[in-house]
Design goal:
The complex is a heterodimer of chains A (105) and B (161). Chain A is mainly alpha-helical and 105 residues long. Helix content of chain A is 81%, strand content 0%. The longest helix of chain A has 30 residues, at 63-92. Chain B folds into two domains: 2-47; 56-157, no CATH class. In chain B, helix 1 packs antiparallel against helix 2 (25-47) and helix 4 (105-117) runs antiparallel to helix 6 (148-157). Classes of the chains: A mainly alpha (105), B mainly alpha (161).
């Protein structure tokens, strides 16, 4: 039983780490600020969610798991606010966005 | 009034879960004091601006959250695909305006936050009828324009009765 639990938890941890690495790669690959925010969103949501879920399985039914759950809830409630204000600030300072057909907007 | 009561119960549960102290009288009374202080601040700040809270939102929240979780995972997979295979799945960033049908500011906030939480779309600005959104792909923009998320949030915030 513990082996099964460890297996599932480590799967979540490894998948979460992979999602974080992919998000970081996207941060370099995407062409402009606006699209890079979307890549950072992968790290914010899936990477954090999977890693915290894996840690919750490691901690079992304890207060630590409750705290990890609360971290996830607060992270998912607040990180959109940060992304939103960054993008809004960029738009208000008239940062040009990259377009596929080559012309800026 | 029921809102205030619920807030006090929720804050107390939150305090106990975070501290894990049950039997130290000094710490417990400090916890009670902080809960009452926060409840007082909330009461003062909402009594001057009475937007009616709809507690019925709470019991519809789990259904919406589970739908949102699926949406988050699938849009994450889409964005990761475009990061790893940019040739096969090219990005096409664009700005688009999405109409919303929520009536309360709480509903609009939930909708805008949900848009930003799903990778591939970010809510930028809210006016009286539309939300300005930056989408990573035309597909993500069309998905949002189809309005399923909007309908679900509106159902979430609708008044009782």
């Amino acid at each position: 039983m513990t082996i099964l639990l460890d297996l599932v938890s480590w799967t979540f941890l490894v998948l979460g780490t992979l999602a974080g690495i992919i998000g970081a790669v996207g941060l370099f690959r995407f062409p402009d600020f606006y699209s890079r925010v979307h890549a950072a969103g992968v790290t914010d949501t899936l990477c954090a969610g999977l890693v915290l879920l894996g840690l919750m399985l490691q901690a079992g039914l304890t207060l630590i798991s409750v705290k990890l759950m609360l971290i996830l809830v607060f992270l998912w409630l607040t990180s959109p606010v940060a992304s939103h204000s960054l993008v809004q600030a960029a738009l208000h300072s008239r940062l040009k966005s990259w377009r596929r057909n080559g012309e800026g907007e | 009034m029921s809102h205030l009561l619920l807030l006090i119960i929720g804050l107390s549960a939150f305090w106990v879960l975070l501290s894990g102290f049950w039997d130290n009288l000094l710490l417990l009374s400090l916890g009670v004091a902080s809960v009452l202080l926060v409840a007082l601040l909330d009461w003062r700040s909402t009594s001057s601006n009475p937007e009616p809270y709809r507690l019925a939102v709470l019991h519809r929240l789990p259904l919406y959250w589970s739908w949102l979780l699926v949406a988050i995972v699938s849009s994450n997979i889409d964005v990761m695909k475009r990061i790893l295979f940019p040739r096969r799945f090219p990005i096409d960033p664009q700005f688009t305006r999405i109409p919303y049908t929520q009536h309360s500011s709480l509903g609009v906030a939930i909708f805008a936050n949900s848009i930003t939480l799903t990778p591939g779309t970010v809510a930028i600005e809210v006016d009286d009828t539309h939300i300005l959104v930056h989408a990573l792909t035309g597909e993500a923009a069309r998905d949002l324009a189809r309005g399923e998320m909007d309908r679900r949030v509106t159902r979430l915030e609708r008044c009782e009765g």
